[in-house]
Amino acid sequence: MNKRISFQLIRFFLALFLIFVLLEVGLRLIGFDYPQLPQRSFIVKPDEPFFIPHERYGFAMSPGKFEINQDDQLKWTSTQNENGYRITSDVSDTARPEIWIFGCSFTYGWGVDDDETYPWLLQEALPEYTIKNYGVGAYGTLQSYYQLKDELEKGKKPELIVLAYLPFHDQRNTASRFWIRAISTHKKLLNLQYPYARLEKDSLKYAYTTLSYQSVPGSSWSCASGFMEVMYNKWQDRSCKNSHVTRHLLKQISDDCTNANIPLVLCGLDSYPRAVDHLEKMNSSGLETLNIGLDLVSPEYTFLPVDPHPNQVAHRYYAKELTDFLKANEHHK
């Protein structure tokens, strides 16, 4: 009996091996490629932590002035205030009404100097307001939601809230494997905690995960292993219901703003069809939206091929479109 079981197990594993070999050969013949993401190099001066752990947001940026060198190809200077948020002016004026802008590295201004970010340029265009830049690299809508709640609980109330949206925020909000794989190239963020949400019975459940990606064994050299990793990541991505989670988060943010009597504008920064579709659906649900999306796969508006973030041209465009919108609407009085 034991010999028969052993024989069946051998046949089973031999069949699996044969399937794996056939899959490997077939994928190579059709030219399947699973590129490995390069590890990025960041040199920060002064040599202090640029990102620090945060109990609620997973991580935050350190206060201070920093010079950042990415792969020796992209260099910029960033000044962060005592709360770790990027400044929008050399002068702080707490007496003026405020406009809060929430977002990710696109709003923070990854790759551009302080006075080149669109929140800084918006501050120059609207000197009667204090523009606050709450954008932080690698944040999603969930962190923006947490930031907003924390600021409102302090008793603060702005004249307007602008929430910047990009389609990859959906994957960030659920900490999908695609997102964890992408962020694993940033060594300064590895092993930090990251908040995420899941949709369960039409309500959101919140948890934390560690920013550490576990590849399928052999995916760095085997087409078959790489293919299985892609398929597993796609399955996991669909099961997370990313876009549904984002819409629930946006609804909660909208409700909080309505309860506090604060106007909210959802601002799309990418012309990608999924981003436009998201804006249209949220607009149809009653949320005010503004689409100022650009073609962010074009070197005209990004640092590509070095880095996909918006360049100075894009930031000037965002600032102008936001300025025109605010001046043309009742938000700007």
What does this structure look like?
The chain has helices at 2-29, 105-108, 118-125, 141-153, 169-174, 177-183, 223-239, 242-259, 273-284, 312-328, and strands at residues 42-45, 51-54, 58-61, 64-70, 74-80, 98-102, 130-133, 160-165, 193-200, 203-210, 264-270, 289-294, 302-303, 307-310. β2 and β3 (58-61) form a beta hairpin. It has 10 helices and 14 strands. The mean pLDDT is 90. The protein has a single domain (42-328), classed as SGNH hydrolase (Rossmann fold, 3-Layer(aba) Sandwich). It is α/β, with parallel strands linked by helices and 333 residues long.
Key descriptive features of the protein:
Rossmann fold; three-stranded antiparallel sheet; alpha/beta; about 325 residues; 10 helices; five-stranded parallel sheet
Structural class: alpha/beta
Strand order of the largest sheet: 7-6-8-11-12
Strand composition percent: 15-25%
Total separate domains? 1
Q: What is the helix/strand order?
A: HEEEEEEHHEHEHHEEHHEHEEEH
Total of DSSP H or I helical runs spanning 4+ residues: 10
Task: Report on the biggest sheet.
Answer: 5 strands, parallel
Give the CATH level 1 class.
Alpha Beta
Helix content: 25-40%
- First-last Cα distance: 86 Å
How many strands in all? 14
Report the radius of gyration as a whole number of Å: 23 Å
CATH topology: Rossmann fold
The general outline is globular
Mean pLDDT score, rounded? 90
* CATH homologous superfamily designation: SGNH hydrolase
- Poorly predicted regions: none
CATH architecture: 3-Layer(aba) Sandwich
